[in-house]
Amino acid sequence: MTAISRERGLDNKRMAWTEDTAEGYAPIVGLLAWLFTWAVTVLMAAVVLPALSSMHGWAVFSDFSSMLLKSSDAAYQGLGHIYTGRGEILVALPGFEELMTGIWRLLETFHVFASVTFAHVDGHTGMPGFVGIGSQIVIVVAYGLGTSAIVPLDGLARDLGLGQCARLAFNLFACLALAWTVALWGHPDDAMAVGLMTWALREALRGRSRRAAWLLGAGLAVQPLVVLGAFVVAAYARPRGLKGWWSFAWRVSAVPVLSLVVPLAVEPSLTIRHVIGQPVEWGSALLDNHPTPWSSLTLHQQVLHLAYGRVAHIAYGSESRLLAVALAACIAIWLLHRHEQHPGELAPWLLAIAFSGRIAFESVVIPYYLFAPLVFALLGIAQWRPRWLALGVPLAAAVAYGSYERSLGEWGYFAAMVVGLALLCALSAPRMERGVTTHRDFGLPELQASEGPEDMTGVSALPSGTETVCSAHA
């Protein structure tokens, strides 16, 4: 009996050591995933895409080159001119461009050479070229900021209890999706904003509402698209009373408002017009920008006739976007009323639905808009039906590939995208049964302490010894 008890004690120690070691290695796994994704993205931009396009140097496409141009100009002319600098129209909050401006200024301080030149074709100004080691440093750092989103995404997958194989499959898909969004489409700002929102969600699930509010505000300053997920994060943060909601709201709005202070002081009318109107374009000059039936309902439109017979349509303030915001708000209201029955395990599914609303109600859809709904839908599938990833990943790839199709027309393209995302959201939906399962503690000791996590008013959100249950089964 003594030998058996001793052996059991050794087994328990081994299991405890294994769990502690795995928890200790968890941040390292996320860091390695980030470095791998960063390397893949840089390789795509520096080697793969230039080779496929017969280009020399880095493949820096229009949206990203505009970000670099505006931030470079702001570094020398001041942040007040960030909406009037060279490049395409800036239609979002300038948080990411202001980060890039700081990097340009830092390189100038250390006298690192960086320059922007323009190629000229048939008398017309062509794409900008970024010359010098300093420009390459800025590009690599921007890619690093964008691909850092995989760290909170991997952390959320770990919090949700994904198995090793499912987590590896999800990370590989997230890596490819990030490289596609950051390198091919030149939108590290979108990826970084989604990463900050995911980080805020993890903090909200741990009961750290103040930290969640600051992170959510930072994500909104980088790219306002995360407002669709902000409602879900706020519902999980669950501030208590009017004072709690006010405290949460001003923390969320502080960073976006600060990012606009200088541009509003220098160019108030232009800044307000671009931030509120957020013009979108489509036409023969922009073949990858696909109009949907909602484009015909936009009240303010403009037609531009460009060189070589190309035509561009510009829509200001697409009113249909408000329907996507309303959908996200309805999800949050439902979650607030059913919070204890449906805890954090439903977050990927709800976020997939909320971000799919952008595709369903946007007047013009660009393929990189699919990044957020595809990633959260695949995370939900990996969480609830890991074996169905064999169907979910090809379906997500088919939706991404179909987003480039130009022969379907407005209604055909719109139907294909909506149906594809609806199928993915259905696959990521939790299986609801009558039984109950214990609420995960998301790896946080506070949820098991004698006092529950504090809300925005400092009052314990969970009474001592309370255990939350839900009716969802994996």
Summarize the structure.
By secondary structure, the protein is mainly alpha-helical. Helix content is 61%, strand content 10%. A hairpin with a 2-residue loop joins strand 1 and strand 2.
Model description:
The protein has 474 residues and is mainly alpha-helical. The protein folds into two domains: 62-269 and 315-434, no CATH class; 273-314, no CATH class. The chain contains 16 helices and nine strands. It has helices at residues 2-53, 62-77, 95-109, 133-147, 150-159, 164-184, 188-205, 209-222, 227-237, 241-266, 268-277, 321-337, 347-361, 371-384, 389-402, 409-428, and strands at residues 115-121, 124-131, 280-283, 290-291, 300-305, 311-316, 364-365, 431-438, 469-473. It has a three-stranded antiparallel sheet, with no helix packed on it. Strands 1-2 form a two-stranded antiparallel sheet. It has a two-stranded antiparallel sheet with strand order 4-7. Helix 6 packs antiparallel against helix 14 and helix 13 packs antiparallel against helix 16 (409-428). The longest helix has 52 residues, at 2-53. The model is unreliable at 1-22, 118-126, 434-439, 443-455 and 457-474 (pLDDT under 50).
Give the % helix: 55-70%
**What is the radius of gyration computed over CA atoms, rounded to a whole number of angstroms?**
24 Å
How many domain units? 2
Choose one word for the global shape.
globular
List its traits:
single chain; 474 residues; mainly alpha; 2 domains; three-stranded antiparallel sheet; two-stranded antiparallel ribbon; 16 helices; disordered N terminus; disordered C terminus
